[in-house]
Specification:
The protein has helices at residues 2-28, 155-161; strands at 32-33, 47-51, 58-62, 71-72, 82-83, 94-95, 97-98, 112-116, 124-131, 136-140, 143-146, 149-150, 163-167, 175-177, 184-187, 190-193, 201-205, 237-246, 250-257, 260-267, 272-277, 280-284, 299-306, 309-314, 317-323, 351-355, 358-368, 387-388, 393-397, 416-417, 421-425. With 426 residues, it is mostly beta strands. The chain folds into three domains: 47-83; 94-136 and 375-425, Umud Fragment, subunit A (Ribbon), CATH 2.10.109; 156-221 and 229-368, Jelly Rolls. It is globular. The two termini are 46 Å apart. The chain binds zinc ion.
């Protein structure tokens, strides 16, 4: 009897220890702290908060003891003398783990997951799933391809991955009227537009130019300040804003792709939305009685070119999309970006226009997609593209691709076995 009670106690204690170890310690009740910046800016590792003394912009700079920099460059105005010395080092973001996330359902693409590191099971990692079991994965031009086809994100997925480039209401003004005879004016930090003539009245985005005059939007990250690397031109952008429209004319947003204008044209008086590429209509919305009038009420507009797909959304609903042709593979040099790709800087391609319309704009923001990089140093990885995933094998990448240690660089190959997943961060 005594031995049976003793055994029962031992089994009970063992189960308690297992429970504490598995669920309580590993992020269920006690949060896990992010130790590095591979998922920045969504999840920050140890960092310092720097403030530019020229424009007042405050931003997080990752802290790495191996990289000693006294100053950094402001991403808002390119002031290269923002001091870092003496700034307090802040700990990384903390999160809990939803250990029930994959009890029933399988992980999906673009899910952020927490797992045991394949090289060291004692370490936990947080990354984003880009490849699913059975797929062949390739990274090209910043985008992910599966079985030879580019993966195009839905609006919801774009919102989850997008990274802010600029917020007009919280930062330095970057949108300027194109013409001297304009109906655009800034009023209480919001743009307002009035009819000014028969032509479309454009408000154009100007990305701040670097010291060498280059105003291209690159895959820079303020978090990675002080880390020298090659930059890649960003083409996947989204413009979002809240607008209130009145009048019989049209409201337009313009993006240029390889020199060709792509236009979102909205005529609120007739509840009509269309996509025009190079002067030719390529998509048109049907009148939606359910959405009510588009006039004289706040409307949330999102217009993006992500993953070679043009997408227009209103009030969080996808209204129109139009897939663009992929880049010519012969134009790539194998490192993930095109060598023949000569295009005007993106900063001069974005514009908002009105034609015989009044408009009030708030929350005018510019975003970009995550730009995945093929590891330049091939000695970092035994894997070659495409990466073929077997059953119950996943490919995971960090959002902060330039500094992320992930599927691209693991010595054992780019695969993450399903059994190493712990759950989703909360
Ligand atoms: Zn600045």
């Amino acid at each position: 009897m005594t031995i049976r009670i003793l055994c029962a106690w031992m089994v009970g204690l063992l189960m308690c220890a297992l429970f504490v170890r598995t669920f309580l310690v590993l992020g269920w009740f006690f949060p896990i702290e992010v130790a590095a910046g591979s998922m920045a800016p969504a999840w920050l590792g140890p960092h310092r908060l720097a403030t530019c003394d020229q424009c007042g912009h405050t931003f997080a700079v990752g802290f790495n003891p191996a990289i000693s920099a006294d100053t950094t460059t402001c991403p808002n105005c390119w002031n290269g003398r923002v001091p870092l010395n003496g700034l307090a080092i802040r700990s990384g973001d903390r999160f809990w783990i939803d250990r029930t996330a994959f009890f029933i359902s399988n992980p999906k693409r673009w899910d952020v997951v927490v797992f045991r590191c394949p090289m060291d099971a004692c370490q936990l990692c947080i990354k984003r799933i880009v490849g699913l079991p059975g797929e062949s994965i390739r990274i090209r031009d910043g985008d992910v391809s599966v079985d030879g086809t580019i993966v195009r994100k839905t609006l919801r997925e774009q919102r989850r991955l997008r990274q802010r480039i600029h917020d007009e209401s919280e930062s330095t003004i970057r949108w300027y009227p194109e013409s001297a005879k304009t109906g655009w004016k800034m009023c209480h930090e919001h743009w307002q537009g009035m009819p000014s003539g028969p032509e479309v009245d454009w408000l154009v985005y100007h990305h701040p130019a670097r010291w060498d005059g280059d105003s291209t939007i690159y895959d820079t990250s303020e978090y990675n300040a002080g880390i020298p690397r090659n930059l890649h031109q960003i083409r996947d952008v989204m413009v979002s804003m809240r607008v209130q429209l009145s009048g019989s004319g049209s409201f337009q947003i313009r993006i240029l792709d390889a020199g060709e204008p792509i236009l979102l044209k909205i005529q609120p008086a007739v509840s009509r939305m269309e996509l025009i590429k190079n002067g030719i209509q390529v998509a048109e919305s049907m009148v939606d009685e359910c959405s009510g009038s588009w006039l004289n009420r706040p409307i949330q507009i999102e217009f993006s070119l992500f993953d070679r797909n043009v997408l227009a959304a209103m009030d969080g609903r996808e209204i129109l999309s139009y897939p663009l042709a992929s880049w010519n593979p012969k134009a790539y040099d194998g490192t993930g970006f095109s060598t023949r790709d000569v295009r005007p800087p993106l900063g001069h391609r974005l514009a908002i226009g009105i034609e015989d319309l009044r408009i009030q704009i708030s929350d005018l923001e510019l975003w970009r997609d995550v730009y995945y990089i093929w590891p330049i140093d091939s000695s970092m990885s035994k894997a070659r593209q495409p990466w073929h995933l077997g059953p119950a094998e996943y490919c995971v990448l960090g959002d902060n691709s330039p500094i992320s240690a992930d599927s691209r660089t693991w010595p054992g190959g780019p695969v993450l076995p399903r059994k190493l997943f712990l759950g989703k961060p909360l």
